[in-house]
Structure formats: C-alpha cells, structure tokens
Specification:
The chain is α+β, with helices and mostly antiparallel strands and 109 residues long. It contains two helices and six strands; from the N terminus they run H-E-E-E-E-E-E-H.
Amino acid sequence: MRNNMKKFSQIKKNFSENRRFLGDGYYRLVTGEFNDYELEIATAGFCGDFSYHPKIKFRIIDDEIQPYFLIDQLANPMITMDASTTENLIYLEEALDQLFDKFIEKIEK
C-alpha cells in the first residue's frame, strides 16, 4: 500500500463527522478511539437513511495505515469484507487508496 499519511492528513483537515454533500455523495470522516477511523461516501435513502458506497474502517499504527473492514451497500452484490486473508487485505488496501484519491479530488476542486 502506498504511504497515504500525507493524503490522510489533508483529509483529516478538511472532513469531519458531519456529512458534506459534494455532488456525487455525502463525504465523511469519523474519528474513533485508539487511532481508528472510518472514511465513507454515502448516498441518501428515501427515509433519511444512508447507504455506504463505500465505507472503510482503518487504524493507524506507527504511522502506517491499516485498513481492516469495508462495506459497500450499493455494489451488486453488496460487499462486506474484513482483513482476514492476504487477498482481502490487498483488496482493502487498493480500495482505501482509491477512496483517499476521491476525497483528495474533492478537496482540490
């Protein structure tokens, strides 16, 4: 996985737990305990709910970003994945790289 600490720093400065609609979805960064984070793009449902497209949970340990869970409720079929295998971890790392790029793109516009 690319070292995304610089990108994450930019995202952290520009996004918070408040969802922001930026044209193609609602963007949000949730800060949890113990250096855990959730990065999501969501779409609004008819009843005030949100569907993740996607939401990735990750933690930072020794300046290394480690994704450990993904859910994409709009993928067909829906995707839920954890980092229990090497194959899953590779998928999560690539998905998080792409999600970071989407957030950075919104910052730069």
